[in-house]
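The instructor's notes for this session suggest beginning with a concrete chain rather than abstract definitions. Hand out the sequence below and ask the class to guess, before any prediction is shown, which regions might be ordered.
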Amino acid sequence: MTKKLPFKEIFNEDNPVYYQFIDNKSKKTVIFIHGLFSSSSIFRHFLQFIKYNIILVELRGIVYSKCDKPYLKNYAEDIRLILENEKIDKNVILIGYSMGCSIANEFAEKHSEMVDKVIMLAPINRTFKEIGRFNFIRSLKDTFGKHFFKRWRDYLRIEKNWPFYKLFSLFNFKLLKDVFKKLDFTCKCKIIILNGKESFLYFNKKDHHLGQPNIHYQEIEDLDHFLFLTKKRIEDISKLLIAHLNGT
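After discussion, reveal the predicted structure:
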């Protein structure tokens, strides 16, 4: 579906920002924000289930354009400019995945009057100081699995816009440091969907945040962080998304 949609372009200072807009003639708009090791194409499986307007953001500096200042506040400003370009100022639902959760949270805090709710898929819940270098490397291995590089190669074969050298340019430690610096979530958060396993980097059943009344916690069985999706996983996540998008 997304391949047939033209990319729109806006500029945040000198940085081009690309996105796709699906106009379903709705009063609500869902914005999908992908993570560091992915693109907006990972959300294509869910588009048929959503009846609201849809915006698919391509984070600059990852696939389609360069980014001189890859910080959360700048990515949040990209989203504001996209909404301004589409003349949308309310009833926004943010769906973030991994690093995209941090961007969604940043935007929701700064522009709460525009946001209806935030849905997070595997948000990061640790600081670099808490993790430590050794645990960080070990946690990445546990998160992505021992077959990560093989699966990444297979993914690249499907995504024509992803030459293999892109993999090495994605280790943007300035942005990672920014992501791991802030853990407090906005009151707009309505759901957190976690990996099936309790990875050290991400939310799990032991986290104190889960005591907050506005947060709903749900695990997806056997869901790896990189979001390689089977038919069953797509169905499971879609059911949860639909339920929470509709406010149930």
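Then share the key points. The chain has one domain: 2-245. The longest helix spans residues 231-245.
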